[in-house]
Description:
Layout: E1 7-12, H1 17-28, E2 33-40, E3 64-65, E4 76-79, H2 83-94, E5 98-101, E6 131-134, H3 138-154, E7 156-165, H4 172-186, E8 204-205, H5 218-231, E9 237-245, E10 251-259, H6 265-273, E11 278-280, H7 292-295, E12 302-309, E13 316-323
Parallel strand pairs: 1-2, 1-4, 2-3, 4-5, 5-6, 7-9, 11-12
Antiparallel strand pairs: 7-10, 8-9, 10-13, 12-13
Helix pairs in contact: 3-5, 3-6
Amino acid sequence: MSKAAALRVAVVGVSSLIGEAVIDELRARKMTFAELHALDDERSVGRPVTGEDGVESAKSLAVSDVAAFDFSRVDLVFFCGRSALSERYAEAAAAHAWVIDGSAAFRERAAVPLVAADVNPEALNAVGARGLIALPGSASVALATALAPLHALAGLERAEVATYQAVSGSGRGAMDELAGETVAMLSGKKARGRAFGRQIAFNVIPQVDALDADGVSREERRLWQETRRVLDLPQLAINATAVRVAVFFGHSLAVHASFARPVSAAQAAAVLQRGTGISLIEAGSTTEFPTPAVLAMAPDKVYVGRLRADPTRDRALNFWAVADNVRKFRG
């Protein structure tokens, strides 16, 4: 890209985990931009932008107040996962620039394209010289990315999924809670249980986000709504259980998928090996299967393993998937 054509970029919500990751990615990929603006609410104004490791970069940026920013100054804006900021500023920014929103604020709006880059990039065709694009949640991205090539192969009819979601999906405070509780309990002290209403260290909590009146959590509802929309399968049957686990980074998914046409594990493996945004970990490899401790910090891929036929049903497969929930977008 020529210097004359270099984008003017703003990142809103830079003090969040995702905001830090976006800044790191822009720098790591050596993206050519004419300007880079770090924006957040007034509580963070003036602070230097640090990387995910908490270290201030040599090319330090100071945080500016998003409320005072003129979005006509930029071509591209990333909103980084905080719904309050997106609800207040994203539509105004989209009148001047391309806006990529990582929060849940606009995912349910039919007029706003919901885009998972490795699944439905054609949805971007609806966006002109400026406009608003929503990103699905990170568990939805991982599920849709793995299911898309299998649907093309055999016609997906149903998916049952249990997600095991890292505490970083609830932000920095939840990560601090897990670290603090772990140290406290190893020292013989009691866990505080503040971030999730109960102990998270050495624990598994079968609830992510609030429960609706029917007992379904909002995360479970988002998972099936977003996956259906990204795959363009509005009637797809998805049964989901979302679980919070004592892991810092990396969502994991146990998936059981049923198909309209016969499909073998070998056929599925061949398709997944060619899939976009997927890395298949085969049983004979040295890695053997994906785990968040090993692969969750390896961005840009959904790692699939434990692929096998379902012994209880015809035309069905079981598999396990892991993805970085901060960089393999979102939440």
